[in-house]
Amino acid sequence: MTDKNIDELWIDVSDAVIRKAERLASARLTEARRRLSPDRPTSRNSISQIRGAVGELVVADWLRSLKFVLSEGFLDDKAHDSDINVKGISIEVMTAKIEDRIRTGFCVPPNKWEAASRRNAWGYVFVGTNSDSPPRRVLLQGVAELSDIALNPPKFTFVNNPDLAIENYIVEPRCLKSPSYLVQVLSGTAKE
Q1: Cross-strand bridge partners of residue 170
Q2: How far, in Å, are 68, 84, 111, 158, 159 from residue 162 at the CA level?
Q3: What pLDDT was estimated at residue 80?
Q4: Which of 11, 101, 124, 132 has the smallest C-beta neighbourhood within 10 Å, fewest atoms?
Q5: Rounded to an integer, what distance in angstroms lies between the CA atom of residue 184 and that of residue 80?
Q6: What is the bridge-based pairing of β-strands 89-97 and 70-72?
C-alpha cells in the first residue's frame, strides 16, 4: 500500500488481490444466490465484476492496515449484509474507473441506495481505478454519508453510449469527504 497522504490515497493492487477478485467475480456471475439486484447493462461482465471486487478487497485491506477489525459481507453477498462492517458501522463500496467518474460524477444507483438504507449503512466509500483491466492502481476518492447521497432526484448517466444510460443518484461535490473522515467516524473522533 502507498499512503503518501490520507486525502490522496493511491493503493497498488497486488497479484493476490487480483486473484481473489477474479474468484469473487466468477462466483457473482455464476451463482444465482449472489444476484441481489437487477443487472445494470454495463456491469454484468467479468471486467466490471473484477473491478468492483478489487475495490471491496482494497478498502477492507486498507481498514485492516489501520488496525480496524471488520467483517466482509461482500465475500458472501448476502442481502442483509453491507460490504464492510466495522464496530457495528456498515459501509458500502462503490468502484468505478476514474475516467468514467469524470464523465458521470460520483454515482449510486437507486436500487443500491435502497439496499444500503435497508442495511442501515453509514454510507459509501468511492474507489476509483486506473483503466487497466484488471485494475492495478486504485484511489480512495472519497466517502459520503448515506443521508447525503439522495439529496436530488436520480438522473440518467452514461459513459460512452447514451443507449446504455442508467439511473443514478449523483453525489453533490459538497457532500464528498476525504477517506480520513471515515477513519474519524470509525474511531469515534469525527466532528459534525
Answers
A1: 107
A2: 41, 33, 20, 6, 8
A3: 83
A4: 132
A5: 25
A6: unpaired
Assigned C-alpha cell, 98: 476514474
- Containing structural domain, residue 96: 9-187
Q: Is 2 left (phi over 0), alpha (psi -120 to 50) or beta?
A: beta
| Residue 4, in any domain of the structure | no
Q: Give pLDDT, residue 76.
A: 87
Residue 113 lies in a domain: yes
Q: Which of 80, 154, 87 is nearest to 120 (CA)?
A: 80
Tens digits of residue pLDDT in 48-103: 899 999 999 999 999 999 999 999 999 888 878 999 999 999 999 999 999 999 99
Number of domains in the chain: 1
